[in-house]
Automatic annotation (TrEMBL):
Name of the protein this chain belongs to: DUF4434 domain-containing protein
Pfam families with a match to the protein in the record: DUF4434
Source organism: Actinomadura luzonensis
Domain DUF4434: 223-485
Amino acid sequence: MRWLFLVVGVAVLALVAAVVIVLQPAGEEKKVAAVAPTTPAKPSQTAPTPKVSEFTDRCGTFETKEKAPYAVTGYWITPKSDPCTWRTQLKEIHDVGGDTIIRIGYGLQFRTVSADGEVQTRDGELDSLYKACREDGLTCHDAAERDLMKANPDNRIGRTYVYRTDESFGPNLFRCPEMEHSVRAGKRTYFRLITQPDGSDDSTCDFSSKGASYDLILVAGSETDSLTKLLDLGDQFGMRVFPALPLAPRDPKTPIRANKKHLGTLTTLTRRILQDYGARFADRASLGGVYQPFEVQMSDTLASNPTLEVYADQHTIVEQELPGKPILISPYMDARRRVAFGQTPKQVAEAFKALAKTGVGIIAPQDSRGTGKVGLFWPDERDEEVDERLRPVVGESTYGTAYYGSTRDYYREMSLARDEMVQAGYEVQLWANVEAFEPSGERPCAPQGTRGKTDKKRLDQAVTMTGRYVQKVVSYMWSDFMTCGQPSLEKEITADWRRPVAVDAIRRSRDIQDGVEVRGYNLAGSTVSVEWSGGTRELSVPQVGWLEEDPLEELPEGMATAWVPFDWTQVPADEWVRVTVKGANGLVSSEPLHVRIAA
């Protein structure tokens, strides 16, 4: 994948404005030029490549060559206890062109402690996960308080937090070794951290001068470090890994917001983990960045959400401890008209700006089609009935009645917002997170929930709607949504990956000749078909046009640009035209592009 953050170039903007002949892409209200890079290219990092063509270990032999590269190049995965599962998952993902792994993470949780010093669940029961954490016959809580009181009798533990993970950490997790250390208990390694409630994390380690109240963080970790294993696999397969940062405790009254009372402790835990990452992994190419899994809805009031403080604080720490590694977030959208919190494309664009101002490097909004909160449709389809798979969410309705806009409308507005933020000096990328599931299904894919299997045709449609507006396409998630059902979505992609996926078409002249430029995947040797009320033209790219397979650094991996001559004066103004692409193998793009000339 390309990891390019650009600086604004006025000359490039001027050049683009000079050469683009305006075509009305689907959903654009007035004359809009093609979205093109707003900044000159800087040298990009070398794309990761596998170390070897295959490797063998106790889990088997694994090839590292892509077999069926698809438009989606990154996937979320869930933690698994079996290390062989990691290898199988990464091989499957790499087979279909994946070069990016994003890990689902865990949350920091505030907990009460019993009179016996035992950590309790939220319901007040004994939490068995922390029962084994004992020192000198005492619970880890009581042992920590004992040690604090030895330093000063007025010291105490005011609040206790827990954090579980399948990772293990090195000595850089600890700031004050006389009070902080690891505790081995069977297959678990616990990490005891003593911190200031305000998140200041005093480096003097002076616990004796005056009595104070401290926070205790008990991390239930692993004997062996899963992140090390993932990064090693990333090196072998040529992939980048985004481990998850700790999830903030939720506001009990408004669970979609972070709880401000606990942000200081979250900041300390984040700092400690990233200090450890920096010491062990800062130079690892397979560490692509870090992922903050606390989701927020993109709305025009998002700037007041305390969760953005989490993003900003963690961005500062990442800059200090892992320079050059971005934070990735994946907020969600809701375009439904019939709910009070539905948002228009422009409102979502304002949210994008608010998120960019926190310093996060990658914003990957969920397309929200899998949850039914946004639809996939073109402007001339507003009066059509919604896909029946959306009816459990929006009922029997037309697209125009159910939604403020299509996912394409939202990504377009966010791309304009991104251009504005890049010009203001913010280094931020816009990725698309296309949801590889349906709102419900006869056989739910995951053990919990009702989400059902989707199909490649619908996934192609989702990719199409991202247009030329994003820098990368990723998907939530690999397991269980890509692997459930018969055939699974993974198998459908493997069988049909050569099918062209056209994402955008614009009117563009070349020299003095009028024509149409198409962007998409698998365009080599293709034929572009333009259909309007006056007829249909089929234009062979190899015979009458040209193909640029790596046109611009800001396009997603694998996207190409084709051009064919076409006289647009024969198409009536404001008429919707359909553009499809047929590959050299005879496969036709599943979703036609709907475009029109601006009046």
